[in-house]
């Protein structure tokens, strides 16, 4: 498969995927680079499209040559794509500024009192909506950085976000992580590479085989350690 026919997509979601000095970086990016090299699939990391999550999520469902990463594997998404992985566990939680002194025991208490910032079409947001939370209680945006800025300005009370990605973004923005806290856990699942459901099965098989080999050789552990994970 040639580079121009495999559409690799990610979002700015450190430490998994992000750009630094114009080059794609991150845990999932480095894994993908090793996978494609080992599987002899010509798709250099420089060709990865960094799009808002909602755009990539839509594209991977309609373009048979598309692969999106990393994506949380949930029951609702199970039949939408072919799964290659796993990459790593995902913990999405409600996070707030410590100064706000927010506490709660149930999701009902959250929606009664607070406005929650989410990433559009993220697994956590989809789950929150499926629980019947009113749309006027959810501020859905395309990036974690934007949500952090909204939290600082008091436009939202809580973030519902991947913990690792949140604290990595916070540090890169120059904010003090000690001023924030995980208020309540929400979603515990696993991240994968998501290939279109009609992608050539041989390509998917080769990528999975390559990832398994990378794990068995200890290279994945080395990559995770590089990003303090």
Main features:
single chain, 229 residues, alpha/beta, 8-stranded mixed beta sheet, two-stranded antiparallel sheet, 10 strands, 35% helix, 29% strand
Specify the structural class.
Answer: alpha/beta
Number of E-state strands: 10
What share of residues is helical? 25-40%
Averaged pLDDT, please? 93
Notes on the protein architecture:
With 229 residues, the protein is an alpha/beta fold. It is built from eight helices and ten strands. Strand 2 (18-20) and strand 3 form a beta hairpin. It starts with 6 loop residues before the first strand and ends with a helix.
Would you summarize the structure shown here?
This protein has 229 residues and is an alpha/beta fold. Helix content is 35%, strand content 29%. α1 (27-38) packs across α7.
Write the layout of secondary structure elements.
Blueprint: E1 7-10, E2 18-20, E3 23-25, H1 27-38, E4 49-50, H2 53-62, E5 66-73, E6 81-97, H3 107-113, E7 116-119, H4 123-130, E8 138-141, H5 144-152, E9 158-162, H6 163-172, E10 180-196, H7 201-216, H8 219-226
Parallel strand pairs: 1-4, 1-5, 7-8, 7-9
Antiparallel strand pairs: 2-3, 5-10, 6-9, 6-10
